[in-house]
Amino acid sequence: MAPSGSRSIKKGCQRVLYWIPVLFIALIVAWSYYAYVLQLCIESIEDTGEKVIYLLVYHVIFIMFVWAYWQTIFTRPMNPLKEFHLSYSDKELLEREDRGESQQEILRRIAKDLPIYTRTNSGAIRFCDRCQLLKPDRCHHCSVCDKCILKMDHHCPWVNNCVGFSNYKFFMLFLAYSLLYCLFITATDLQYFIKFWTNSLPDTQAKFHILFLFFSASMFSVSLASLFIYHCWLVCKNRSTLEAVRSPVFRHGIDKNGFSLGCSKNFRQVFGDELKYWPIPVFSSLGDGCSFPTCLVNLDPEQPSSPMGSNPASKGAAEGRQFPTKPLRESQSRLLTSTPSWTESDSPLLLPSSNPSLYFLQKP
Ligand SMILES: [Zn+2]
Ligand SMILES: [Zn+2]
After folding, report:
1. Number of Cβ within a 10 Å radius of residue 137
2. Measuring CA to CA, which residue among 161, 133, 164, 160 is closest to residue 150?
């Protein structure tokens, strides 16, 4: 084993190396700003009206893009609350037991008081050895961050951060604005790109910036569009990238649509209930990241066969009761409980007996 000193040097070097992709993106963005604003708009465009409109629209998109990128990078991923960590006595108890089944018994006893509904493939309680905690639903241990991350989507090297519950909305906006940024540059640069090939541009260095600007913006547009469309689909289905690869396992078995509440509610779970916050990179996701409302059925709620989709009356009834009255603690689900259209704290819950297709995150 390497001495701890050299290990910390290695870790320090790794931390520096992880910033290289972010630096690479930052340099490309800085160059694109110089090429678009100075070389294209100021140096090459002669029409003042066109110049002003391009610069105005460009700067609005640029600010939103950089803001969303900044938020995705610097928003700390959320870790499980202390309720999910093992107490000192539980740790001791667990260490004393060497049989897997006895350890599971202890974990099951602790999990009884927590809103945990997913299991491992073998049906065991999901436990993180490294963090010594019971993993909340949708939480995974990130080997790069060396932490358990709430609703972990993936570890993104381009933002040198884990994308999860705390910054998934920012990541979506980052994809949307960067795509818009590239599409806007491609569209407005096109006519000058054509002029380059017809030799109608003045023979200055600006023409090479115009050429590379078009190539890079159109290339990034294609890759960003495919990534953005994929994540839009994930949002509509209420799946993380990890869950799209491996479906979550509930007590009743594997259910890839276990967290899906229908497209509109799935979208609002990430972007919030207030339309004005949807395009802005400020946190507005609903819930506490530790517990999630779910339809514990194998049916997709977006399918017409589901009563939610087929019967407007039952859909209306489900509207108010879709979310648990107390997902974990009222204070932890501020966003959830402060949304009257999503919860009715005193309303009776629909139970499987009254409607077999709906089963809510409520402890029996
Ligand atoms: Zn962990
Ligand atoms: Zn990570």
Report:
1. 23
2. 164
